[in-house]
Amino acid sequence: xxxxxxxGDVLADTWFSKVLTFDDAGVSDHPNHKALPEGVKQxxxxxxxxxxxxxxxxxxxxxxxxxxxxxxxxxxxxxxxxISKTMLYYDVLITRALENAEIIxxxxxxxxxxxxxxxxxxxxxxxxxxxxxxxxxxxKSQLEWFRWLYLLFSRYMWINEWTEVKN
Length: 167
Description:
Layout: H1 2-13, E1 18-22, H2 26-29, H3 31-45, E2 55-59, H4 64-67, H5 72-100, E3 121-123, H6 126-137, H7 145-153, E4 159-165
Parallel strand pairs: 1-2
Antiparallel strand pairs: 2-4, 3-4
Helix pairs in contact: 1-3
């Protein structure tokens, strides 16, 4: 496995707490991107268990309809978060009302209270967007016409959501 032979040495010589990579949809459906999460997962599983073992997070690929909303992405994410919080509130409220009416047993957990974990989200401001833009400009060979569209309209330039992969 090339990944293990190359990155295994890096892992042995460097301490870090998290590894960030693509999910198995690969964001752009690129075969190399799609293969990375499984390769990294296997690599991390080959490391000895312990408190210093890095955690693996994969970037959540979004459908094409949401990929190219550009600077609207953070606003849309905020609206989504507000709607989710409102739904959680009503979920708990309805569960408590059903308990009070003795329709369900007291002490029941609302579905929203079960296995609830916060999803790590990274939101870029203007300075971070500029940094990412300048980083791409440093790779002139990559700047095909469609990459300019990506730089201008991609949601991933503004917001990234991550999910942890359990070993």
